[in-house]
């Protein structure tokens, strides 16, 4: 099995061994078998947030294809293999709020707590009540509540202690409502014609988010080559006070005293800024790269795309070129959002 067939980037060489797991017991059995044999293990589902090496993966790839949504009211338990966007559509159709801004995100439900998936002012950390996992260190199934998941911006205990837990199911607590959660994202508020903090019909919010994402090439579409990506390749930097002040100084020096870097204060006193803004001001433009292979999206500078003739080596090379350019221009280190498999970001 060539892993490029299972990833949204369509990149990645073969797996030494490939197993599909359609039930929780199948997932656990396959993981246990790999661990007992001493084999390297890669767990996949939607393949939307991974960058697999051209040489592939020398161990066992377990692809989770479990299905099922159970529960009533706003409390739903969802199998890890359920595709994410159809689940969001189901919630919107059922009048359940608080995931509508996460419409159009590719991948599986089980991947969302790992990355603490978020967009347009929402994060899954706000609605996840618990995650059922197989703990490889303890060889046991257990349930981790939201506090144990230790969510932070685009991260979690699952990401920081990578490989220990395999997500089996996620329990969400949603709000029965015909209206969305308060709109927190200015671009979305403008698209809806509402003020920040207002609520809007769920269906209208989903439609607006999908339209915004499509305009950026961030909705999977066979007709859109810009959608052959891993989504946003870099996370938005979150800087402490001193680092943000230094960034402002570099911005003024390079772009002039009137230039203002985007800034979103965080509750811990740090400031989040825009990776896309920095990439563009460092001199990288949409379409930069190989028009037949690896290039920055024509629609959004934060997405790196595979135009069909690319390789993982070329993708990582372009990503490093961009990160080095931002570091040289502004002294800020960009970190990749996708998981690297078979190669390392730092070389």
Question: What's the helix and strand layout?
Answer:
Elements: E1 15-21, H1 24-37, E2 41-44, E3 50-52, E4 57-64, E5 69-72, E6 75-79, H2 84-93, E7 96-97, H3 112-115, E8 118-119, E9 122-123, E10 128-135, E11 140-145, H4 146-149, H5 157-160, E12 165-173, E13 175-176, H6 186-192, H7 202-215, E14 229-232, E15 238-239, H8 241-255, E16 264-265, E17 271-272, H9 275-281, E18 294-296, E19 303-306, H10 312-330, E20 339-341
Parallel strand pairs: 1-4, 2-4, 3-20
Antiparallel strand pairs: 5-6, 6-12, 7-13, 8-9, 10-11, 10-12, 14-19, 15-17, 16-17, 18-19
Short characterization:
The protein has 347 residues and is an alpha+beta fold.
State the main characteristics.
three-stranded parallel beta sheet, alpha+beta, 28% helix, 347 residues, five-stranded antiparallel beta sheet, Uridine Diphospho-n-acetylenolpyruvylglucosamine Reductase, domain 3, Uridine Diphospho-n-acetylenolpyruvylglucosamine Reductase, domain 1, globular
Overview of this structure, please?
It is a single chain. The chain has 347 residues and is an alpha+beta fold. It folds into three domains: 3-64, Uridine Diphospho-n-acetylenolpyruvylglucosamine Reductase, domain 2 (2-Layer Sandwich), CATH 3.30.43.10; 69-215, Uridine Diphospho-n-acetylenolpyruvylglucosamine Reductase, domain 3 (2-Layer Sandwich); 225-341, UDP-N-acetylenolpyruvoylglucosamine reductase, C-terminal domain (Uridine Diphospho-n-acetylenolpyruvylglucosamine Reductase, domain 1), CATH 3.90.78.10. Helices cover 28% and strands 24% of the residues. A five-stranded antiparallel beta sheet has the order 5-6-12-10-11. It has a three-stranded parallel beta sheet with strand order 1-4-2, with helices on one face. The protein has a three-stranded antiparallel beta sheet with strand order 14-19-18, with helices on one face. It starts with 14 loop residues before the first strand and ends in a 6-residue tail after the last strand. The mean pLDDT is 96.
């Amino acid at each position: 099995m060539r892993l490029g067939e299972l990833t949204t980037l369509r990149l990645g060489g073969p797996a030494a061994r490939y197993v599909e797991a359609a039930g929780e017991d199948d997932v656990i059995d396959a993981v246990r078998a790999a661990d007992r044999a001493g084999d390297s293990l890669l767990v996949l589902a939607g393949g939307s947030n991974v960058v697999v090496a051209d040489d592939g993966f020398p161990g066992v790839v377990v692809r989770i294809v479990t299905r099922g949504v159970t529960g009533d009211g706003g409390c739903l338990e969802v199998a890890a293999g359920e595709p994410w966007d159809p689940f969001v559509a189901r919630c919107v159709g059922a009048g359940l709020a608080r995931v509508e801004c996460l419409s159009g995100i590719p991948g599986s439900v089980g991947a969302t707590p790992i990355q603490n998936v978020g967009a347009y002012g929402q994060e899954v950390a706000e609605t996840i009540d618990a995650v059922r996992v197989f703990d490889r260190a303890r060889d046991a199934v257990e349930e981790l509540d939201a506090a144990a998941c230790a969510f932070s911006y685009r991260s979690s205990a699952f990401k920081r202690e990578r490989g220990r837990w395999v997500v089996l199911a996620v329990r969400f607590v949603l709000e029965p409502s015909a209206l969305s959660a308060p709109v927190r994202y200015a671009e979305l508020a403008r698209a809806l014609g509402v003020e920040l903090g207002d609520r809007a019909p769920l269906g209208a919010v989903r439609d607006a988010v999908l339209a915004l994402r499509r305009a950026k090439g961030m909705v999977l579409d066979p007709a859109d080559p810009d959608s052959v990506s891993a989504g946003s390749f870099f996370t938005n930097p979150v800087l402490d006070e001193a680092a943000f002040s230094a960034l402002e100084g570099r911005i003024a020096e390079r772009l002039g005293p009137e230039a203002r870097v985007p800034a979103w204060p965080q509750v811990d006193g740090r400031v989040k800024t825009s990776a896309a803004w920095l990439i563009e001001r460092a001199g990288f433009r949409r379409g930069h790269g190989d028009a037949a292979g690896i290039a920055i999206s024509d629609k959004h500078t934060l997405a790196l795309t595979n135009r069909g003739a690319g390789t993982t080596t070329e993708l990582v090379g372009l990503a490093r070129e961009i990160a080095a350019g931002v570091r040289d221009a502004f002294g800020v280190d960009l970190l990749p959002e996708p998981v690297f498999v078979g190669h390392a970001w730092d070389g």
